[in-house]
């Protein structure tokens, strides 16, 4: 039976993480599950909430970073600890229902893809919608397959996850690392609901900064930035 690793970057997700992990653990129709929660410098009670969840459930791994390093750094950290045959990454705000994971995984298996992105049909935040269009425009220039939409909800095989997680640069842009590992990528429509908890941590300024990092990663210029680690881990729970 396959093991699916769910990686969730958390930022001030105390209100949502309990419901999110509960709904993920109910997804039993495609194999065994592990959940890797990476706390990216939250300033609310996320740390206490997830520690409690991990203490009660051995399938939940908790990684606490020393500060806020950004979503892509948090995801890369999670990838380095994932043990699954398939890795699935999703946001902490429940805008993308975790049940839509079935859509991604079915596409991964039936289309024999290495990576599958969820394509949001409605309700993406205006700022994130601008960012999505910008990143997809840039990714198209650097080899993204036509018709594929890059989003923060995606799954990949363990082979691609291992290739991506070998990256050692301090500047991280995950779609760029994925495209460097494979061009066998697909996207499928998924539900995207109105925000139930919190608010987006992205601004126009942070998206522009991410776009610049993306260009450096695509061109392999970012590989030379090894002066400091991309992330620093403060604490781990349920890591052998």
User: How many domains would you count in the coordinates?
Assistant: 1
Q: Percent of residues in beta strands?
A: 15-25%
Could you give the distance between the termini? 21 Å
Total helices: the number is: 8
> Nearest-angstrom radius of gyration?
16 Å
Specify the CATH architecture: Alpha-Beta Complex
| Helix percentage | 25-40%
Question: Mean of residue pLDDT?
Answer: 86
What is the strand arrangement across the widest sheet?
7-5-6-4-1-2-3-8
Structural class: alpha/beta
- Determine and state the CATH class: Alpha Beta
- Given the C-alpha coordinates, what overall shape results? globular
Per the CATH scheme, the topology name is Spore Coat Polysaccharide Biosynthesis Protein SpsA, Chain A
* Element-by-element helix/strand order: EHEHEHEHEHEHHEHE
Q: Write down how many β-strands occur, each being a DSSP E stretch of 2 or more residues.
A: 8
Give the full name of the CATH homologous superfamily: Spore Coat Polysaccharide Biosynthesis Protein SpsA, Chain A
Largest sheet: 8 strands, mixed
């Amino acid at each position: 039976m396959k093991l699916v690793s769910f990686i969730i970057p958390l930022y001030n997700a105390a209100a949502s993480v309990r419901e999110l992990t509960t709904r993920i653990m109910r997804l039993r129709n495609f194999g065994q599950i592990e959940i890797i929660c990476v706390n990216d410098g939250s300033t609310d009670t996320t740390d206490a909430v997830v520690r409690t969840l991990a203490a009660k459930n051995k399938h939940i791994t908790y990684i606490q970073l020393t500060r806020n390093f950004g979503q892509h750094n948090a995801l890369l950290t999670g990838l380095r600890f994932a043990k699954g045959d398939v890795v699935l990454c999703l946001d902490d705000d429940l805008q993308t229902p975790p049940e839509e994971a079935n859509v991604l995984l079915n596409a991964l298996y039936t289309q024999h893809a290495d990576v599958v992105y969820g394509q949001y049909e409605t309700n993406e935040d205006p700022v994130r919608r601008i960012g999505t269009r910008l990143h997809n425009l840039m990714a198209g220039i650097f080899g993204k397959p036509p018709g594929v939409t890059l989003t923060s909800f995606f799954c990949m095989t363990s082979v691609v996850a291992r290739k991506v997680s070998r990256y050692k640069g301090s500047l991280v842009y995950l779609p760029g690392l994925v495209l460097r590992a494979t061009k066998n990528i697909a996207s499928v429509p998924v539900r995207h609901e109105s925000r139930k908890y919190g608010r987006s941590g992205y601004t126009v300024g942070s998206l522009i900064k991410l776009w610049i990092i993306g260009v450096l990663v695509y061109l392999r210029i970012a590989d030379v930035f090894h002066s400091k680690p991309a992330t620093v881990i403060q604490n781990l729970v349920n890591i052998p």
